[in-house]
Amino acid sequence: MIRAILLDIEGTTTPIAFVHETLFPYARDHAKEFLVNNAEAQEDIARLREEHAADVNQGQQPPALSDDIDSLVAYVEWLIARDRKSTGLKSLQGKIWRRGYTDGSLKSQVYADVAPAFARWRARGWTINIFSSGSVLAQQLLFAHTDAGDLTGFIGDYFDTHVGKKSEAESYRKIAERLNARSEEVLFISDVVAELEAASEAGMQTLLSIRPGNQPQEHAERYRTIYSFDAV
Predict the structure, then answer these.
(1) Cα angle 87-90-93, degrees, rounded to a multiple of 5
(2) How far apart are CA 198 and CA 168, in angstroms?
(3) Alpha-helix runs per DSSP H in 104-216
(4) Per-position pLDDT tens, the chain of length 232
(5) Long-range Cβ contacts of 165-168 (<8 Å, 24+ apart)
(6) Long-range CB contacts (within 8 A, 24+) of 74-79
(7) For the chain, give me the number of helices (H) and strands (E)?
(8) Do residues 228 and 209 make contact, with C-beta atoms less than 8 angstroms apart?
């Protein structure tokens, strides 16, 4: 029995191309202006400096960091280029995207089957929840400004890297606890096998999302696959 749906975003509800060709470039192009002009960026700046120190200690060879804002922007661009699941970066990106969504510069994309599936699942009494590397703010903004309308009314809860890494089983155990559900009552859908492995280890049911533009996954044959939410 399923009580809760847990969804990845990129490659599951939303095309990968939208994230990499629209959202990431927007954040990169507006990073310096935001860091200079917004007091709310100070917490993210502090976190990014901590992450930079960790990268240096681990031999990752990030761009040198100084008191000059341009050096911080260079580090942000370095993280974006690597699609790093950085808490500091994801928090910063969410705040930058908020301005874009507010002024109409950004409109998020979801697959055509997403909104009908959300309505159908809610009608069955299932809760719908999101687990993404992007910040909770970024998740909420994306679903509030889709080409299918505001879908946030369907969504019960959002989880980001504060709950843990998406490749670690403990993250999914924590989420199930937050949802007041047994792990086996949660169905997790993602396009990444490593995430499905972690969710399976935690006891969740899983489905592999195969969408146009998604990267082929090793060991995909181990998981049930869907090409549309119409199958759920």
Answers:
(1) 150
(2) 5
(3) 114-123, 136-144, 169-178, 193-201
(4) 999 999 999 999 999 999 999 998 999 999 998 888 877 888 888 999 999 999 999 999 999 999 888 999 999 999 988 888 888 888 898 999 999 999 999 999 999 999 999 999 999 999 999 999 888 999 999 999 999 999 999 999 999 989 999 999 999 999 999 999 999 999 999 999 999 999 999 999 999 999 999 999 999 999 999 999 999 9
(5) 165/85, 166/8, 166/85, 166/131, 166/133, 166/190, 166/192, 166/194, 166/195, 166/198, 167/194, 167/195, 167/197, 167/198, 168/198
(6) 75/48, 76/28, 76/31, 76/35, 76/48, 77/28, 77/31
(7) 9, 6
(8) no
Tokens of 150: 């505001």
Number of other residues whose CB lies within 10 A of the CB of residue 12: 28
The answer to whether residues 216 and 33 touch, using CB atoms and an 8 Å cutoff, is no
DSSP 75-108: HHHHHHHTT---HHHHHHHHHHHHHHHHTTS--B
Note whether 208 and 226 are within 8 A (CB): yes
Q: How far is residue 5 from each of residues 16, 96, 128, measured CA to CA in Å? A: 21, 29, 5
Residue 197, φ and ψ in degrees, nearest 5 = -60, -45
Half-sphere exposure of 105 (CA within 13 A, CB side): 13
